[in-house]
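sorry for the late reply, my laptop died twice this morning and i had to redo everyting from scratch. anyway the thing you sent over, i finally got around to it. pasting the sequence first so we're on the same page, its 229 residues, then the predicted structure underneath. double check i copied it right bc i was rushing
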Amino acid sequence: MTDLIEYGLSDGVATITMDDGKVNALSLDTLTAVAAEFDRAEGEGAEAVILTGREGVFSAGFDLKTEGEGWPPMLIAGANLAARMLSFRRPVIIACNGHAMAMGGFLLLSADYRVGVSGDFNIGLNEVAIGLTMPWFGIEIARHRLTRPYFDRCAVTGVLLRPDEAGTAGFLDDVVTGSELAGAAQEAAGRLVQVKDPAHVDTKLRVREQVIAGVRDGVKRIEGDGREW
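ok and here's the structure:
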């Protein structure tokens, strides 16, 4: 556990909670810490992992205060975490507490099952709206999970959606009230731990072969030239 991340394991389900006391901006330190907790969950034999945030916000995306040489490593860490989730051996559930934008949205699109809360919350990929070109790895993740019309609209316009519409677009699988979120995530984990391993991960890797390759190619682009996101 760090000041940013809390980890718990109960009845075979690991819960990773992000809470920076603000909007859960995904800095390099935060992304590294979350990835380490996924490693811990796997090492401890967790049958499923729930990733969640703080009340009102799952994550507002990358830490935009990062500048210069710090930006490419943060992008790479985000892409690698997404690839880790896309290929994780056991089911990954996200309990989305509210807002989920940019990299927060990409994490939603990388989990096996996503539960969100109803309310006046924004979910989407708003890079274009704030003047950023969407990274190649993000485009591949969005292409894989969003419905075709919403993929184009969300990526090109940066529109933010309310939870119900975000479910239609492909960001969420279920929308519940705030008081129901934790229980709904645990219920989903309980269902998904019944999925047989290695059938789960083997099929996951087949279904997601192209998107995982696309994310890894996106990392190579950043490593080759930090300006080529």
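The domain at 5-224 is CATH 3.90.226.10 (2-enoyl-CoA Hydratase; Chain A, domain 1).
thats about all i looked at so far, will dig more tmrw
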